[in-house]
């Protein structure tokens, strides 16, 4: 089969590899669509280190081809999205359905062979059945590009009517804006230096947009005592400090963007304590959250028809990767199609 194999930093290729076989408790999935994410860029560049060699790809949907021994309740031919986090299965968090937070988790396309391939093997519990009216390319990006913001929103505890600041309006940030406005009912201030990104955020329901992060604290305090929550979707240490300064007393800063840089806050410790501010990390999503999002799409409450901004074939993976790396304002998510 064909697969995009990363052999080391900067060294990847579309290669012919042996077809995987499902082991006990596993299923073999024929991939129909797989997203290309900023995490793939970091892996290829070497700023994120995974296993070498590894088949890339962690945002996938397709059809079950076969089941390994001990798999029950899964029908061959069923369409499904794939949860990209494989937990140890034995810890407290795994028992609670929180494999993304398991200390011994593997991530598809990082720690084990992923789904940027014609076939992928995953544990049966990673399957999220897709309703017939949810296309595979939408099912694929649900698993990360949409579910990661949804998990972060859940962790923030925001509610209808809250004021929320979203710093960074790329694929993750744009879906954060959409979920906050359309599903939760929050008022949102979006922050991004790119005019096209700000325009798109307004189309998705943002109340206001700001080009310079340095100006957002004043916007958040216009007629209020600050934002109820702020989301850093970029991962810049400086933006975390900015996000904290946007908040009202007892506000929450949720960090979703990832960087290898050390965290250094310029804010005084006594300010964090006296204002009872919370700094919350958020990684990935749960199977239940992906299933919930699929239901929202199928029910017509969440329109993701404009979320796939580019479609490529496997032989054009390099072009798709560069499109993702460029962070063009009009690009939300690109996918590789295999069907």
UniProtKB/TrEMBL annotation:
<protein>
    <submittedName>
        <fullName>Alcohol dehydrogenase catalytic domain-containing protein</fullName>
    </submittedName>
</protein>
<dbReference type="InterPro" id="IPR013149">
    <property type="entry name" value="ADH-like_C"/>
</dbReference>
<feature type="domain" description="Enoyl reductase (ER)">
    <location>
        <begin position="8"/>
        <end position="336"/>
    </location>
</feature>
<dbReference type="GO" id="GO:0016491">
    <property type="term" value="F:oxidoreductase activity"/>
</dbReference>
<keyword id="KW-0479">Metal-binding</keyword>
<keyword id="KW-0862">Zinc</keyword>
<dbReference type="InterPro" id="IPR050129">
    <property type="entry name" value="Zn_alcohol_dh"/>
</dbReference>
<keyword id="KW-0560">Oxidoreductase</keyword>
<dbReference type="Pfam" id="PF00107">
    <property type="entry name" value="ADH_zinc_N"/>
</dbReference>
<dbReference type="Pfam" id="PF08240">
    <property type="entry name" value="ADH_N"/>
</dbReference>
<dbReference type="InterPro" id="IPR036291">
    <property type="entry name" value="NAD(P)-bd_dom_sf"/>
</dbReference>
<comment type="similarity">
    <text>Belongs to the zinc-containing alcohol dehydrogenase family.</text>
</comment>
<dbReference type="InterPro" id="IPR011032">
    <property type="entry name" value="GroES-like_sf"/>
</dbReference>
<dbReference type="GO" id="GO:0008270">
    <property type="term" value="F:zinc ion binding"/>
</dbReference>
<dbReference type="InterPro" id="IPR013154">
    <property type="entry name" value="ADH-like_N"/>
</dbReference>
<dbReference type="InterPro" id="IPR002328">
    <property type="entry name" value="ADH_Zn_CS"/>
</dbReference>
<dbReference type="InterPro" id="IPR020843">
    <property type="entry name" value="ER"/>
</dbReference>
């Amino acid at each position: 089969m064909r697969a995009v194999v990363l052999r080391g930093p900067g060294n990847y290729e579309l290669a012919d590899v042996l077809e995987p076989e499902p082991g006990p408790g596993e299923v073999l999935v024929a991939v129909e669509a797989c997203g290309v994410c900023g995490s793939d860029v970091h892996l290829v560049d070497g700023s994120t280190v995974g296993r070498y060699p590894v088949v890339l790809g962690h945002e996938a949907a397709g059809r079950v081809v076969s089941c390994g021994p001990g798999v029950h309740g899964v029908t061959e031919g069923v369409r499904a999205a794939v949860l990209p986090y494989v937990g140890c299965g034995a810890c407290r968090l795994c028992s609670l359905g929180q494999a993304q937070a398991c200390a011994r988790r593997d991530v598809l396309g990082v720690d084990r062979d992923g789904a940027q391939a014609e076939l992928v093997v995953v544990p049966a519990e990673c399957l999220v059945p897709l309703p017939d009216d949810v296309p595979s390319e939408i099912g694929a990006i649900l698993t990360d590009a949409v579910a990661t913001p949804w998990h972060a929103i859940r962790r923030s505890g925001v509610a209808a009517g809250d004021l929320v600041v979203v710093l960074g309006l790329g694929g993750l940030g744009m879906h954060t804006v959409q979920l906050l406005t359309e599903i939760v009912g929050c008022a949102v201030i979006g922050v991004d230096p790119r005019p096209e990104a700000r325009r798109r955020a307004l189309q998705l329901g943002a109340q206001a947009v700001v080009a310079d992060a340095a100006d957002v604290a004043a916007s958040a305090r216009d007629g209020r005592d600050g934002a109820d929550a702020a989301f850093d979707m970029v991962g810049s240490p400086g933006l975390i400090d900015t996000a904290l300064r946007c908040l009202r007393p007892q506000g929450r800063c949720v960090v979703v963007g990832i960087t290898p840089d050390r965290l250094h806050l310029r804010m005084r410790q006594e300010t964090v304590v006296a204002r009872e501010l919370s700094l919350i990390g958020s990684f990935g999503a749960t199977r239940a959250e992906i299933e919930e999002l699929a239901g929202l799409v199928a029910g017509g409450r969440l329109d993701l028809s404009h979320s796939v901004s580019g479609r490529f074939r496997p032989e054009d993976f390099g072009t798709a990767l560069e499109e993702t790396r460029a962070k063009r304002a009009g690009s939300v998510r690109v996918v590789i199609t295999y069907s």
